[in-house]
């Protein structure tokens, strides 16, 4: 996916509950879909996908590349527009790496929550986000 994107552009928007992080013309966007990463280009077939924790990479029309960590959400792709509605979104350069102690505490909490499936699912999600942040910072 590191190949040069096409010259055609489309509108890309990345929105979190707090603000609009990106609204610009893009050549290509790679999104961490629930079933795997996928790229969006101008003229893409309509697609709606849930997003797993990971990095959205944007190749802007001006040649700049942006990397934004998302904790989850949804992507809506049409031939002219790609919208990402993120639960949380942070530029990768602003991420704070979870500590080993935080990871251990989450893993311990998961062990204690084995009899409460709702609580266990919430802790598992927090653990997935923490691990995705570590991966994003290592890339």
CATH topology value of the largest domain: ATP Synthase, domain 1
Structural class: alpha+beta
How many structural units, i.e. domains?
Answer: 2
C-alpha geometry: elongated
- The name of the CATH superfamily of the largest domain reads F0F1 ATP synthase delta/epsilon subunit, N-terminal
Low-pLDDT residue intervals, each spanning 5 or more residues: none
Distance between the termini: 14 Å
Please provide the count of β strands. 9
Helical residues, percent: 25-40%
Q: Taking Cα atoms only, what radius of gyration do you get, to the nearest Å?
A: 16 Å
| SS strand fraction | 35-45%
Number of helices: 2
What kind of sheet is the major sheet? 9 strands, mixed
What is the CATH architecture descriptor of the largest domain?
Sandwich
Please specify the SSE layout and strand pairing.
Layout (H helix, E strand, L loop, with lengths): L9 E6 L4 E14 L2 E6 L5 E5 L2 E7 L4 E6 L2 E5 L3 E6 L2 E3 L8 H13 L4 H22 L1
Parallel strand pairs: 1-8
Antiparallel strand pairs: 1-2, 2-3, 2-5, 4-7, 5-6, 6-9, 7-8
Helix pairs in contact: 1-2
């Amino acid at each position: 996916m590191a190949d040069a994107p096409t010259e055609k552009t489309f509108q890309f928007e990345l929105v979190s509950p707090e603000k609009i992080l990106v609204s610009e013309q893009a050549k290509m966007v790679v999104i961490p879909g629930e079933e795997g990463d996928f790229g969006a280009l101008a003229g893409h077939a309509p697609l709606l996908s849930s997003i797993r924790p990971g990095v959205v990479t944007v190749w802007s029309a001006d040649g700049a590349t942006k990397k934004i960590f998302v904790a989850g959400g949804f992507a809506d792709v049409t031939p002219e527009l790609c919208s990402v509605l993120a639960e949380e979104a942070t530029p990768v350069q602003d991420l704070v790496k979870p500590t080993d102690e935080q990871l251990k505490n989450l893993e311990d909490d998961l062990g204690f929550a084995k009899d409460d499936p709702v609580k266990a699912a919430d802790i598992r999600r927090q653990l997935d986000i923490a691990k995705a942040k570590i991966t994003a910072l290592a890339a």
